[in-house]
Amino acid sequence: MKDDKISEVIRVGKAQVLVYELRVEAAMSTNVCSVSPDDTMEDVRKILKEHAISGLPVVAGDELKGIVSIEDLIESILEGKTADRVSQRMTREPVTICSDDLLVRAINDFGRYRYGRFPVINRQTKKLVGIITKGDIIRCLFKRLESNHYEDELRRYRAGHLFEDIRSDHSSLVLKYNLEGASFEKAGEGSSQLKKNLLRLGIHPDVARRITIASYEAEMNMVIFCKGGTLIATIEPRCVTVNAVDQGPGIPDIARAMEPGYSTAPDWVRELGFGAGMGLPNIKNCSDEMHLDSTVGKGTNLQFKVYTKK
Ligand SMILES: Nc1ncnc2c1ncn2[C@@H]1O[C@H](COP(=O)(O)OP(=O)(O)OP(=O)(O)O)[C@@H](O)[C@H]1O
Ligand SMILES: [Mg+2]
What we know:
CATH superfamily of the largest domain: Histidine kinase-like ATPase, C-terminal domain
Helix content: 40-55%
Structural class: alpha+beta
Bound molecules: adenosine-5'-triphosphate, magnesium ion
Number of helices: 13
Low-confidence stretches: 1-11
Strand order of the largest sheet: 7-8-9-11-10
CATH architecture of the largest domain: 2-Layer Sandwich
Largest sheet: 5 strands, antiparallel
Radius of gyration: 23 Å
CATH class of the largest domain: Alpha Beta
Mean pLDDT: 88
Order of helices and strands: HHHHEEHHEEHEEHEHHEEHHHEE
């Protein structure tokens, strides 16, 4: 990957943190127009026109059967076959997203596929619960950024006062998150809780943001490559140190693992939108210091530090 591309990927912004925190259900539209497999393409034309949209999920009962788009409609018009049933023209087994997926997953999928919308299903019941477009994501982010802006102002007032009245030779506060056996669905919860607590403690939002992104990447690595691990954040008057400790398989070649784009992620992980080999470079970029120790067969200790005061 070229250098300018890398810095684009790892640039740390407020919107970037939000997409690692918010779930698809926060952005999706629940008011879904749909058609049945037995409707005709002429019915599709009317609905698309009436609602000024460019695609529709095809649903029988609550079950998602496919998706029909404006391209399918145009094709049927050109062939003079608008009386065709939707079931003859739709895309079967469309790419779907689960309502509890992180928004970053949806954004990755919009990058990977050229679809304009994804049906959103409930992970357990597999039933259609919404639909998501890039526009939904942008609207949701704008709304959150606006309300976060005012909260940030309030927090800044308290920032840096955490240790001010405490007299000791050494003060520190340790927050520990046990991610042992963490599942993919729950991945990201440790770093999300850590972020909330850092903000509550008055850590500057920009600093909290960098710590959260680095912690999220470390957490994902522990979930993907190990059977979980532990995230330990030590807050001191001048810095926050995070240790991500696991008893996983270890990393045979640390220099190689640190290279942007290097990944041993299996196919099923890549299919979920991970495995770009950007996690460790991202952690390095977000932190002021980073140390990676690993012993094959024993485990890995990743430590990073972010200074809260100059
Ligand atoms: N805790 C860990 N235990 C074992 N191996 C790890 C661990 N963390 C990283 N690795 C190894 O280092 C490689 C690079 O990690 P990195 O986080 O940069 O990329 P990735 O996880 O493969 O992809 P991405 O983070 O972009 O989704 C991984 O593919 C894996 O081989
Ligand atoms: Mg990773």
